[in-house]
Amino acid sequence: MKNLWCWRCKIEVPMLDQEEYKVASKLYRNGFETGKCNMTRKTRFKDLLDYYKDLTGFEETNPNAIMHHRIDLYGAACENCSKPYRTPKASFCAACGNKKKANNCTESLHKEKPKWWQKLLVLNKAGSN
Ligand SMILES: [Zn+2]
Ligand SMILES: [Zn+2]
């Protein structure tokens, strides 16, 4: 468990690591399998909510929120502002714009140059108005 900034909730929340998440997802599934339609979400996923509270001390009421509070979904902490990168593959920080240090990421290196003829397309468009 680690307190991390959640990009969806826009607050810092306790996020689960792999092992913790495994348990959480099992409880989540149990909620679906054993719950009844007339149960409130809170009753249905009580085990999950209790588990999360035991683990983190955070009283979450929305089981879906717990399922996206998972360290794996986000990138490492930004070197500049320490918020996590929005995804593990993000190339820059969405919070402060800090560029992630290049680590054998080939994607940005192979950005194609615009073709010479693409200029013509732009000119044509402008002229046709
Ligand atoms: Zn969240
Ligand atoms: Zn940042």
UniProtKB/TrEMBL annotation:
Protein name: Uncharacterized protein
Species: Flavobacterium azizsancarii
